[in-house]
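Hi F.,

I've been meaning to write this up properly since the lab meeting, where we talked about keeping a consistent format for the predictions we share between groups. The idea is simple: the sequence comes first, exactly as it goes in, then the structure tokens exactly as they come out, then a line or two of notes. No screenshots and no reformatting. I'm using this chain as the first example so we have something concrete to point to.
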Amino acid sequence: MMMLEMNTRFKWMEELADAFDDADMDSKGRITLDELKKYIGSASVRACLRGLGLDVNTDNVEGLFNAVDFDGDGYLTIKEFIDGCAHVAGTARQLELARVRARTEDIYHLVEQLARTEKENTNLTISTLV
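Output, unedited:
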């Protein structure tokens, strides 16, 4: 199981490295905000990043850029890009899991309430028959 997770993570990192190389339009080994905006402008690129767990679009690309530009120099290195995307994707998964967990608890409480109501209604019906 652990080996599968490592292989999956390695593949994910390779795909991000490929995305970085594609976005690095001037081949300087770093991405500017303008390069990332142009790169994110493509629907196929957005779909690829979504497949990696990153919902990035032209509306939130600047926020992503600023969040992962750890040294604040206005450029993303490949390390910043991969580490930042991993952090953002991990956080997004954690938030989604928290939302699912909360929604599941809401549904559980509704089912409990329905069961209590049904039991009370059944007891009332039996009482009126006796």
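Notes:
Residues 93 and 99 are 10 Å apart (CA to CA).
Strands lie at 31-32, 75-76.

If this format works for you, I'll send the rest the same way.

G.
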